[in-house]
Amino acid sequence: MKTTLTATYRTLQSQISRSTAKMQQYQETAASGIKLNTSSDDPSAVAPVINAQSQIRSGERFQSTVVAATNYLDNQDSTLDQLENLMVQAKELVLAAGNGSLGDGEIAAYGQQMTSLREEAFALANTQVEGKYLFAGFKTDTQPFPDPMDPTDYQGDGNHTELQIGPGQKVVTNLTGAELFGGSDGGLNILALLSDLEQNLGALDTQQALTRLDDLETGADQVRGYRSKMGTTAVRVEEAGVRMQEFTDSMEVKLSGYRDADIIEAYSDLAQQEQALQAALSVTAKISQLSILDYL
């Protein structure tokens, strides 16, 4: 009888230990909302969880790149918008100055306005965002057009920034000052054109200024062309961001299915385990009080 009682007692103690460990697991699950705290909780879920977490990290990196590209393109588009408006103003100014009914003083005043436009164009060419020059290629710490009196003195380079916005998806996000302002790809040197017009009107030579009207329209079209090109890029970046967000969300749902607990179920399991443990403790307490006299 003694051996049987001892064996029973040990069996109950083992059950209590298992119940206590199980209850601690349920307590952790209920408190954290996570059912997969260790690999032993569900070995079959470990690989899918690791894969989902890896995919989410990858998606977040792409989203970070998308945000950076979007900010860069927005700043660039704002500058292009200002430059396009400036070219329109320059054309209007030349037309106004060359109407044939103005005196020298009035023409000189238009010349001063052209000087302001030329200075503004150089300022746009040297635009900085967070301390980096937008139109200097890879040489973002170098002022691309340091001499406001020399429209050909470009100190940037011709490199383009290529960003990966998704698996197998890369886009060029920048324009160089050489191509946009200097016409290095066969276009028009906008800065040189504005400098010439400043000299023409300063010398009261409205007829020579009027001969450059077509060039002003060409320059404006040049800006519009680059703006349209980068606008298409911006749309691609935005669409990639939406797709990557949807993909990351789907991975989060998948991860949640393997890792996250049903809170109601977790608390229900915890309550049942607490009841089972209390029952086991009660039985063990009663058995521990038994003696040989109880069997006489």
Q: What's the layout of helices and strands?
A:
Elements lengths: L1 H31 L10 H55 L6 H22 L2 E2 L2 E2 L28 E5 L2 E4 L4 H4 L9 H13 L3 H5 L2 H47 L3 H26 L8
Helix pairs in contact: 1-8, 2-3, 2-7, 3-5
Report on this model:
This protein has 296 residues and is mainly alpha-helical. The chain has a domain of 203 residues: f41 fragment of flagellin, N-terminal domain (Up-down Bundle), CATH 1.20.1330.10. Helix content is 69%, strand content 4%. It contains eight helices and four strands, in the order αααββββααααα. The strands form two sheets. It has a two-stranded antiparallel sheet with strand order 1-2. Strands 3-4 form a two-stranded antiparallel ribbon. Strand 3 and strand 4 form a beta hairpin. Helix 3 runs antiparallel to helix 5. The radius of gyration is 37 Å and the shape is rod-shaped. 27% of the residues are buried. The mean pLDDT is 84. This is Flagellar hook-filament junction protein FlgL. InterPro entries: Flagell_FlgL, Flagellin, Flagellin_C, Flagellin_N.
> What fraction strand?
under 5%
Count of DSSP helices?
8
Overall pLDDT, averaged? Answer: 84
* C-alpha Rg (nearest Å): 37 Å
CATH architecture of the domain at 52-254: Up-down Bundle
Please report the total strand number as a whole number: 4
Order of helices and strands: HHHEEEEHHHHH
Largest beta sheet: strand ordering: 1-2
* Poorly predicted runs of 5 or more residues: none
CATH fold name of the domain at 52-254, please? f41 fragment of flagellin, N-terminal domain
The named CATH superfamily of the domain at 52-254:
f41 fragment of flagellin, N-terminal domain
